[in-house]
Amino acid sequence: MPKIGPIELPDFPLLLAPMEDVSDPPFRRLCKMHGADLMYSEFISSEGLIRDAIKSRMKLDIFDYERPVGIQIFGGDEEAMAMSAKIVEAVEPDLLDINFGCPVKKVVCKGAGAGVLKDVDLMVRLTKAVVKSTHLPVTVKTRLGWDESSINIDEVAERLQDVGIQALTIHGRTRAQMYKGHSDWTHIARVKNNPRIHIPIFGNGDIDSPEKALEYKNKFGLDGIMIGRAAIGYPWIFNEIKHFFQTGQHLPVPTLVDRVEAARNHLLWSMEWKGERLGIVEMRRHYTNYFKGIPNFKEYKNRLVTTDDREALLGVFEEIIESFSGVVF
């Protein structure tokens, strides 16, 4: 069973990826209910934390029912990363993760996220600064390299392990690929099979079904899988994968009532955590995913994304149950 510092994880754990504007406490709560073994905050700017930016501070909120849970930070300045690690330590997460994988331009331009893949020496210095400044286990999430001609994950894994990280998650794409094309897990497996590597290695990228999860588990021999986009609006994927591992059978697909209940809980918990107005507005991006595949749903979708009143929204959910009670997925 993989261990990250003192954290004992189940055999072949399923991790929820840190996703900007998605992996907040309400969403993590749903994923935990449905089988996620280890979760992370949205990534947090080290500069924002030090400046006391309210949005960055809010992302530090974690709750005991989520544990084990990690907080993820990013940045390109050693001193800022070290200082933000101390701020993170104060809220007592189970681990601290460094994002060296985000391909988004505004992050890369600051020499952070996947931008650091072009400068492994800097990546090592940043990691070392964080490891030295915290008692928490430090982990890293990164990509294969900057582009196809500069895949350097083998060197990165060895050097980051040497400065003290305790687990590594590798997204099987380069920065140049962004989220396009296919992820290539053969590079991740090569890191895992390197005799010098003794920390847990987790794979990330394109896992969207129990069949694919089992195929990749058997084929690549990693310590666990991280799931990102496939969990958005579909937190059931974690337990579906676990059930398929154990039995070779599929769990029944979520019913309409299951979908409504998940969306309603997500909304209620969002309002509770963010305040009613912001909770309602920020929930709108999720409805398409919760109700994907339901025929003739457009009218209800429009109402869900335009209704501003809590009670009216809850009423729409009730109407959905009544209108689609006979629909089979």
Topology:
Blueprint: E1 3-4, E2 7-8, E3 14-16, H1 25-33, E4 38-45, H2 46-50, H3 54-58, E5 69-74, H4 78-90, E6 95-100, H5 105-108, H6 120-133, E7 138-143, H7 153-162, E8 168-171, H8 186-192, E9 201-204, H9 210-220, E10 224-227, H10 237-247, H11 256-274, H12 276-283, H13 287-290, H14 298-306, H15 310-323
Parallel strand pairs: 3-4, 3-10, 4-5, 5-6, 6-7, 7-8, 8-9, 9-10
Antiparallel strand pairs: 1-2
Helix pairs in contact: 1-11, 4-6, 6-7, 9-10, 11-12, 11-15
Measured distance between first and last alpha carbons: 36 Å
Q: What's the helical proportion of residues?
A: 40-55%
Architecture of the largest domain in CATH?
Alpha-Beta Barrel
Q: What's the number of extended β-strand segments? A: 10
Outline the structure in words.
- The chain has 329 residues and is an alpha/beta fold.
- The chain folds into 2 domains: 3-247, TIM Barrel (Alpha-Beta Barrel), CATH 3.20.20.70; 256-323.
- The protein contains 15 helices and 10 strands.
- It has helices spanning 25-33, 46-50, 54-58, 78-90, 105-108, 120-133, 153-162, 186-192, 210-220, 237-247, 256-274, 276-283, 287-290, 298-306, 310-323; strands spanning 3-4, 7-8, 14-16, 38-45, 69-74, 95-100, 138-143, 168-171, 201-204, 224-227.
- The strands form 2 sheets. Strands 3-4-5-6-7-8-9-10 form an 8-stranded parallel barrel, surrounded by 5 helices. Strands 1-2 form a two-stranded antiparallel sheet.
- Helix 6 (120-133) runs parallel beside helix 7 and helix 9 (210-220) crosses helix 10 (237-247).
- The chain is globular.
- It starts with a strand and ends in a 6-residue tail after the last helix.
- The model has no long low-confidence stretch (mean pLDDT 90).
